Protein 1
Amino acid sequence: MTIASITQLICFAALSITLVVGALGVVLLPNIVYSAFLLCGVFLSVAGLYLLLNASFVAAAQVLVYVGAVNVLILFAIMLVNKKEDLAEIPRLALRRLLSGGVCLGLFLLLLRVDLTTPWAVPGPVGIGEGATIRIGEHLFSDYLLPFELASVLLLMSMIGAIVLARRDVFGSDLITGEDVDQGLIEKVRPPLLLDPTTPSPSALQETL
Amino acid sequence: MPIETPIDVPLQAYLVLAAVLFCTGVWGLINSRNAVRVLMSIELMLNAVNINLMAFSSYIDGLEIRGQVFAIFVITVAAAEAAVGLAILLSLYRNRETVDMERFNLLRW
């Protein structure tokens, strides 16, 4: 065993322990904010695993997209919707947890058996190491060109969809016919938080919209 | 230029790790009461799939690394999914005033 391989083993062990503990924390911790920060740790350790697999470009993309965008988005969503609420008790919660735990354990055993008994075709060809980024670029602009363009269309669609779904400036009347829109379908009428609640009543504010 | 890199961690180690991560995600997806945690569990499952793709592309398909290209597409779709999912969650929260999954039963018989 060379020093390089020992270092690799140690890095893999440390990253996988971080990954598993972080994932369990994401699922099990009662406070959702801790879960979000642990999710950041999970994403970072997955990026470390990619570095161990000689994929520096995908590791960078993982850090930029997951840690930089998705995790921040989740934190913002937690800030916007995190209201302390007492969850109503649901019957047979323990049984439900036990059953789903059994199903997940069965799935894990199945995957484990497949992983360990399949004769994988290793070792494959020697990897191209740091030439991976160049090869990804060649793939994206030759044989994966259509999925690449479709991905850009998908991102545009999801951006527009997210804006349409999450915006709150709904119109009080239909733009074309001028009739009143049933606001109850779109959004509940609520008193604005920052204004003085005594002077403009919510219904009067609704009229001005 | 091909670089000879010693790979001593077996492929199976990555696969088992991804299986653990995926099953954790499935359990969280089923059992979470908070809708944000459901989205986080989905991200965990997508990451598990990505680990599998990257491990196969590095060990078996070292020259043509198609798995890495697939992983990039999965990351893209995951980002889009997170954005739309959180937007749906926000508008649900405005209407129902809760993030409890058990109370999102507007369309349930």
Note: The CA atoms of residues 23 and 45 of chain B lie 8 Å apart.
Protein 2
Amino acid sequence: MSDLNLFSVLILSALIVFFLSQKKAKNWQTSAGSERVHSLPVYYGYFGSIWTVIPALFVFAFWSFFSTNVISTMVVGQFVELQALDKSSLSLALNEIYLMSDASIVPSLSDNTIKAQAANLFMQYSQYSAIFKSITVLAIAALGFILTYWRITPTTKARNSVENIVVYALLSCAVIAILTTAGIIFSVLLESIEFFKTIPVSDFLFGTHWSPQIALREDQAGSSGAFGAVPLFWGTIFISLIAIIIAGPLGLISAIYLSEYASKRVRSIVKPVLEILAGVPTVVYGFFAALTIGPLVRDFGYWLREMGVNLDIQILANLTVSTESALAAGLVMGMMIVPFILSLSDDVIAAVPDSMRDGSTAMGATKSETVWKVIIPAALPGIVGGFLLAISRAIGETMIVLMAAGVASNLTANPMNSVTTVTTQIVTLLTGDQEFDSVKTLAAFALGLGLFITTLVLNIIALHVVRRYREQYE
Amino acid sequence: MRKGTDVELLQNLGDTVGKPLIDGDSRMSCSKVDVFYNNNNQAIFDISVDLGKNEILAMIGPSGCGKSTLLRCLNRMNDTIEGCKVEGEITLDGIDVYSKNIDPVLLRSNVGMVFQKPNPFPKSIYDNVAYGPRLHGLARNGAELDDLVEESLIKSGLWKETKDRLNKPGTGLSGGQQQRLCIARTIAVKPEVILMDEPTSALDPIATATIEELMYELKSSYTIAVVTHSMQQAARISDRTAYFHLGRLVEVNETNKVFTNPEHELTENYITGRFG
Ligand SMILES: Nc1ncnc2c1ncn2[C@@H]1O[C@H](COP(=O)(O)OP(=O)(O)OP(=O)(O)O)[C@@H](O)[C@H]1O
Ligand SMILES: [Mg+2]
């Protein structure tokens, strides 16, 4: 029986058992003079189908998960030639065997290589496995059904056990989410450790030169590449700073206007527009940054330089100007997070109770005094939280920087110059033809780890700030 | 006393009976005030009443009869409600508070307000009390401000409990203390009139008693209008009592008279608990 069929049968039997158990419970209810039934019939229904299907599903899942490995081991055990292979070639061989055993490209019997034989054997074992799996799973379902259906009585606490199972179900969902995250972090960590075996941590953390070019030929000059991440993290921070300097005040002040001053009509128009703005894909912003803002910033830079030459100001006269610049990327990224900050701030400002506004107004405060002296301080924890979230977003943003700030790693404080960021470098490291084990690829993981730790620290600080503020005012 | 069913009484509701206006100087006075909420929903009909100097006027009446609405007209808090319209004349010391050249912001520093739910700002106790004086520049330096804060806290009976924790958040006080803090904050700007909208309805009997005592003491320096749902409270603290009914002012009389020998039957029905 195929997996899909088996699964369908299980679901179907769950339904049937549900109605059977429910029916049984209903019969107790109608038979006069009987004692009080503990739970509603529908709970007996759930109870029955859960115990029939869940254990069977578990076995089903386990079997499906492990069968390929078990069968492979058994097949390898049959062939001395395969046992002789080393680890990586064995896994290659096995892959080939899996492919061959797949029904669509089944090898002809005349093909007598070891692999073909192994594939045949593999196919055979798989068939046995499928049959046994079906039998076992169905048997367990039947057993579950018998054990529950015949043993439920009016005093069975079906309602309570269903409740317990619900709790476990919720718990397991949470655990899956957490485990997935942990798994990702773990794998990033492992690959990073691999990377740090080649490149010392101190070089990565404090090195100021980033050029991960790996030689095409062994004897090429500068073949080792340099992996100092400081310029990348600097670029990230620089651009995020520009973005937040633009977006913070703009977003906050518009939020104040919108929630405190604007009429209902204006609000009802502006809010949806903002939501549309927040939904614009970042690549569109990137476009805008690369094609419009970038050249503008560059022209401005040229103008500055000319001024510097004319007025004999050394710093300006020597200004490096490029089309791809930190300023262009920061400006556009700022525009991107304005709606984000605006709507978060608007929410927290609106959450400040009206009694605060009334209290302040009744003290003879004007509207703006009320806003700046009472509303904003009361909403500050939320606003700070929103800002930090926005920064996290800016740090993780890739597309805009990729298009507007360039990929050249410069350690510079000149916003007219091009810089690159952690995310952009991860993209350039991982796109294109790569060997998976090369230092270049591994470097991406190390960068990812750095990014992860940065945002983690940022969030911890955010939580801490918010909590301290709360303690002060609650 | 007039007799009749409630419906008849409502239909015949004429001018306010008793003594809504006082003979001598009044602090505030309303004459022929109508208030409309949006869509011309009239909430208050033709109310005329005076607030004397150094007196407590209690406003009682069933829920929704417009007590809060009238109270909020007195310091123009209604301005903050979209679509609210006030007609008639309200004066403070003889000056029309709704006239064009009156600044509502300044008016509110002269006519303070205490709300039903204590609403201290999320600031320290000190900053709560200093809020108004700072806004209006009532203290020239830190020492003066300190004195003003201390004086207000003493007047509101909160000084002893809070003098060691002035820098702690005002929201950390108990409900009754918070309400006294709100009173302290109001009197710190030295108003002439204090409006109180059910100031004790969120408090336990002991905190209520403290606030009532406080109101009694404040009477010597301020004019107080207090909305209350507690007949006993009105009887204990007020000099005159106003009975409102469906947006109309039915009767205003000496508190004693209202509670022992009301002039209007609707008032009697209400205070004897016969009103539905
Ligand atoms: N902001 C508002 N918008 C529209 N109508 C309002 C508003 N506030 C009050 N009203 C209406 O005005 C009338 C009087 O309300 P008000 O709050 O003055 O009553 P109240 O006597 O204070 O009642 P309570 O004793 O329950 O506080 C009610 O019918 C109410 O529905
Ligand atoms: Mg009210």
Note: Chain A has three domains: 3-154, 157-198, 210-473.
Protein 3
Amino acid sequence: MMDQLFSIHSPWPKTYKADLSIASVHIRMHFISQESQQIFTRPFRHLLIAEGMESTPDLQIYIRHDKPGQTPLEVWRQFDQNSTEERQRQLYNKDGQVLLYQHDSKVLAGYDRHTQKAYYYIPKLDMLPFYEKAAPMRMIFHHLAQSQGWSLVHSASIGLDNKGVLLIGAGGSGKTTTALSAAFSGFTYLGDDYVLLNPQDNTILSLYQSGKFRWDSSQILEELNNLAVNPRTDKKGFFFLDEIDANVSKSLPFCGIVIPKIGGLESTTFHRIPSAKALLFLSASTIFQMPGSGQATLKNISKAIQHVPAYEVTLGNHTKEINQQLRKLIKGL
Amino acid sequence: MSRILRPNEPSVISEPMDEELVVINLESGCYYNLNPAAAKLWLRLESGASIEKVLEAQQLNGHSKEEMTEALNTFCQYLQEENLMIPAGEDNDVTCQPMEFDEPEIEKFSDMQEMLLLDPIHEVSEMGWPNEAEKK
């Protein structure tokens, strides 16, 4: 059914594929062109499995776009016609098969939990917005996570000495800047916006080795300007962490939660807060961003965070000092 | 007549943490932190106890009966105004253990409303994607 909708029964090139692993889950991505292979493997470079080491995949993702002059898929046209500014997301479910169309990205994604196949379609690659190139297929990974008892959470994550923390907070809270400046200073990096949380063994799993940043934050991290792989006309810049030889890890034990807050003060301070507060902010920002998540996500997050301490960190004005304080905090966990 | 409330599921989800309770309203985009006193009251109402029964089980703990009644009524009214709980049909004959009264407090957050999922999951009709099935 889904194969037909996404027209993957027609001749599909065997050449373009990539295998990746997240924890022990093996994912095979199939691409229709070399160009799409290059775009969509880059954010997952740290998770790629070397050729010859592949096993039977737990999930297969088919990524397609059209050739020049080709008519877009019928199902995509239907969704596109129904789409409006007010109706940002269209999410449909039928017997365990889910389709999501996003108005802003024009991406149609599908997930079939019976066949463990997922689908990702955009008519032309040059229609892809920057955030889909930096952190693609979030809906697919959200469903994969659910099937494994994990949750895809809206959080940055860094670590030190085999201890990982989630950095949570709304846009503008300093979460991304903190994560990126920490990555530049030798911390382990797991993600700037979305990571996977496994409550069964309390680990944080990295998904994307990308970093997005506001163009004006490059005053804090001057290097970012030169690293951006997208034009300044995009709302935000992004780059890949392998460009700076950052210490990107596939996973780390989950040891704490940090809620950064821009303080405008000379020095960075932190104080412990109740776990309920951490659950509140992490679950709300995750659930409202992730279509189709709800009670299961809330329970998963709750299970994971009840064993770890949470801190509110009021950020000082100096990046170096912030990193020193974070180093102290994480080492003490 | 007994007044009985129940959580407005599936729009409202909740989870206890330590002694507090996190409540999320998926429809309004608002989320709430209930202090331990409010969390206990929520859990009692959720178990099917009527407001009257919950009130009877409260021990004054230095408060007057009037204060306690007003606080509980205000709390229940707020839960309904925010669509977190809705009137339910029957008293489940739940027994309420005595509990010392404390002021229930709810902290409300609405900063996620702009990210609200305006379009929830639809079931697909017989006509196929993307035609929405009629709600039952």
Note: Chain B has a mean pLDDT of 84.
Protein 4
Amino acid sequence: MFFAIMVLVLLGGVIFALIVGAWPVLRDIGPAFVITEVWNPVTEKFGALAPIYGTLVTSVIAMLFGVPISFGIAMFITELCPRWLKRPLGIAIELLAGIPSIIYGIWGLFVLAPFLQRTIQPFLIDTLGNLPLIGNLFAGPPYGIGILTAGIILGVMVLPFITSITRDVFETVPPMLKESAYGLGATTWEVTWKVVLPYTRVGVIGGIMLGLGRALGETMAVTFVIGNAHRISSSILAPGTTISATIANEFTEAVGDLYTSSLICLGLILFVITFIILAFAKLMLLRLQNQAGR
Amino acid sequence: MQLYARRRAVNYLALGIATGAAGFGLFWLVAILWTLLYNGLSAVNLDLVAKMTPPPGSAGGLLNAIFGSIVLTIGATIVGTPIGMMAGTYLAEYGKTNVLSRIIRFINDILLSAPSIVVGLFVYEIMVAPMGHFSAWAGVVALAIIALPVVVRTTEDMLNLVPNGLREAASALGAPMSKVIMLVSYRAARNGIITGILLAIARVSGETAPLLFTALNNQFWSTDMNAPMASLPVTIFQFALSPYEDWQQLAWGGALLITFTILILNIIARALAGLGSGGR
């Protein structure tokens, strides 16, 4: 029955194998790897800054896009929804999580990207692009594919995860608390915003972090729509790259030890970042659980 | 009175936005499914499941990719499920709340949402690199690692739902622990565990990232587990990004096929779970 320990061994093994694989980079390039932008397989110069930047920016966009919507859906399900609609709606949202990421990718590439290119992006460029300061964010031609598109797709992909956790923690709120607030004459919105949300804050943050962990590690959908350009541009409409997209695109073609090892090192960085975020999220949720048990 | 009016307005606005958000979430589901149907249906015909993946410019199907996907998924299920069930059983029946099982539970939850591409890298390091070539076995292992945490988690949850009274009754009759687990706990939790396995299969069959550099891909019919093997998701990836019309068409067909398989698995799993809890 001690197969359980295998789970532990597995994690140790993953980290160990990645470190071994990344060793040439850690030895030869060292910390400079994370702060250099150049990525040139021909001259064997590798720097991870562009993928790391792309990963962070797409995840931030995904969160900006996904969190308020998940919150809205969770609120709708717990507070507003008629009883008969609750289950089907919950299942429908969870089915979104079941759709494989490659489907999001192909859909993003053939449907969402052209749509954004024709409608939303020119609009953004014409309006926000002319403003000082934030104008740079929306500069350049509308490619369709790019960091913004990847962020939106990621936002949709994390929706179900954040929604289901937010919904679950919303339901842990003792009805008594809500009823007393209603009794004082509070509106539904006020109850949610001022009673339910503070009570479940830790859990909601945990859910968001869990979603963030997903967004950071997502590969296929991003690979389709990000454009794979190894550079950092100030515009979020421009193509970029992320850690996972770089690995997915280049790993099988990588020749030379340093190239392969750079990609594995990227994987290691990604794993460490997501590990920290997920661990943090779990701790948050555990704390809420203990609280509820009391 | 004005305050009251404002509060009411804010309330309606917020509720409207919440409803809108729910509609928006549904919209994505519908939009994706509709596009899949629209683009995929024209690609669904007998050739899709009867012919091999073609070179660009000629007709063909996805037979070898479908076969590869099925083999890889079944392989991963056979490898991953027993280990996952054992581990889940340990957590629920033996370990309960000791420190070791707490740590394992924690790690398992993290593995549950760890980036799948990292799993691919890991398997590349331990299997592909030493063996010197890509192989279907490596793909099986990668998928098994992804299925494992799902099975562990659901097995544990389901076993925890089995009332303790049942176990105590069996123990009181003199049954040893192993008999109690095999004959009582497993039976009571059977539906739930099957649900977990189905969910794991659904998760695994749509995975692409870890297969990219383990099982790789194969243009031809192959049953050799030591050679690279085609799979639906990787084929879709390759075909969708290609510039050839007919390849893209096939990719849509494959996408339709795989999405509906997975959605159906998900729905069956949920129905089973509902059945289990409703009966009790």
Note: Chain B touches chain A through 84 residues (CB under 8 Å).
